[in-house]
Amino acid sequence: MIAPPPVYPVVSASGVHLTLADGRKLIDGMSSWWAVIHGYNHPRLNLALEKQIKSMAHVMFGGLTHTPAIDLARRLVALTPDPLDKVFLCDSGSVSVEVAIKMAIQYWQARGRPRKHRLLALAGGYHGDTFAAMSVCDPVTGMHHLFRGVLPQQFFAPRPGCRFGEPWDPDDVTEFAGLIGAHCDEIAAVILEPIVQGAGGMWFYHPEYLRQVRALCDAHDVLLITDEIATGFGRTGTLFACEHAGIVPDILCLGKALTSGYLTLAATLTTASVAETLSCGGAGCLMQGPTFMANPLACAVATASIDLLCESDWWQRSVQSIEQQLRDELAACIELPSVRDVRVLGAIGVIEMQESVDVRRLTPRFVESGIWLRPFDRQIYIMPPYVIEPQDLSCITDAVRRVLVEKGC
Predict the structure, then answer these.
(1) Is 94 a known ligand-binding residue?
(2) Are 37 and 234 in contact, with CB atoms under 8 Å apart?
(3) Where is this site: Participates in the substrate recognition with KAPA and in a stacking interaction with the adenine ring of SAM (predicted)?
(4) For the CA atoms of 331, 332, 333, 334, what is the dihedral angle to 10 degrees?
(5) Cα 286 to chain centroid, rounded
């Protein structure tokens, strides 16, 4: 509220382009916080909404159901690995994490082990801004100091150190193993972002870490929650990031790209074992019931988005091509003295700077160059819609390199 940075009014959006009120067009390199995988104003997604609104825009999901929710749930069950076959449709990614945490706590209550109510998370993680979700975000950068004494107290293991695509170091999981072993009688679940830690620093870690975590959860009778809100639906090069490690969580959170950015919607999937066990507890059901859960409009556009993705050659023609182009065109940035690292995975490209990015200085320069990026902390990152053309992606990477050079970075 005090000395705010500039904001840019958008009057329309189409494909990968945002049109500002002054007539300028920007190429969107952010997919509106990673959600708009099919681009803006897609005719097929527009049609799904138009058809649905003619029958109903909303109806409560307590004691009633409807075809859009049924269709979406069936697609999610078919798309995700077995045995994730129970779906809870909710409002947003952060709420899906809240739901996942409630599932885990109620599960152990129903099994007569109420002391298992804490979470084990990873440093560098991000899971949302509501209270339970915030409690498992990074304890240094995740606003904990502002809410000390109010937030639930969780356990935190160090951020995985082994990078994706580099040799595995067995010592990387040692501290995690010690924590889960020492506190398994208190831990209801481990929660993490598989393979890619997003808003906590755009860090890509080794799939073996995830495999080891799954094994340790099994060994110590702890549930595993994977937060695929940012990574789901192809962003890392597999449909879900867990596939890089060949593991299946007990609870899976999805959001963001679920509706390709059209409406807010999320899903929390779990196994029949978890769902039926918690339903046999004292409450008799999962204690969550959002007003707009399974909103028909959101479900209809989500189903259309999933169908559009599955019918396309999303991996070879989209994500793989974006990955290779980002590797080729960002590689030279590592030569700049203020650049610490350049890394790419799937349709994610990251330039990590030596020091925090001056957003007030860089963002207007990016806008002047005809692109929209929103850096944070030390990261300048690119997560474009999958439909971006090579020439538009080159405009983004060229502008980033040029601005960094011009600004003496």
Answers:
(1) yes
(2) yes
(3) 3
(4) 80
(5) 23
CB 347 within 8 A of CB 318: yes
By CB neighbour count within 10 A (0-12 exposed, 13-18 middle, 19+ buried), where does 320 fall? middle
pLDDT for the residue numbered 409: 54
Q: Which amino acid is at 405?
A: V
Residue 271 annotated as binding site: no
Asked if residue 126 belongs to a known ligand binding site, the reply is yes
- Assigned architecture for domain 46-310: 3-Layer(aba) Sandwich (3.40)
Q: 356 labelled as ligand-binding? A: no
CA distance 45 to 304: 6
- Was 93 annotated as part of a binding site? yes
Q: Residue 218 gets which letter from DSSP?
A: H
User: Which distant-in-sequence residues (6+ apart) come within 8 Å of 155 by Cβ?
Assistant: 118, 119, 120, 121, 179, 183, 187
Per-residue H/E/C for 79-124: HCCCCEEEEEEECCHHHHHHHHHHHHHHHHHHCCCCCCCEEEEECC
Coil, strand or helix: which one is 224? strand
- Residue in 321, 333, 303 with CA at minimum distance from that of residue 391: 321
Asked if 402 and 394 count as a contact pair (C-beta separation under 8 A), the reply is: no
String of DSSP letters for 3-50: SPPP---EEEEEBTEEEETTS-EEEESSHHHHT-TT-BS-HHHHHHHH
Structure tokens at 341: 């690292």
CATH fold of the domain at 10-30+313-405: Aspartate Aminotransferase, domain 1 (3.90.1150)
User: With contact defined as beta carbons under 8 Å apart, do 216 and 176 qualify?
Assistant: yes
Distance of alpha carbon 40 from alpha carbon 31, whole angstroms: 9
Is 264 known as a binding-site position? no
Spatial distance between the Cα atoms of 23 and 53, rounded to a whole number of angstroms: 31
Task: Estimate the crossing angle of helix 174-183 against helix 207-219, to 10 degrees.
Answer: 20
**Lowest mean pLDDT across 133-147, 243-257, 312-326:** 133-147
Torsion of CA 108, 184, 243, 390, to 10 degrees: 100
pLDDT in tens, 185-239: 999 999 999 999 999 999 999 999 999 999 999 999 999 999 999 999 999 999 9
Q: Would the annotation count 374 as a binding residue?
A: yes
To the question of whether residue 290 is assigned a binding role by annotation, the answer is yes
Domain ranges of the chain: 10-30+313-405, 46-310
Confirm or deny that 124 is annotated as ligand binding.
no
**From CA 273, how far away is CA 259, in angstroms rounded?**
28
Residue 291 marked ligand-binding? yes
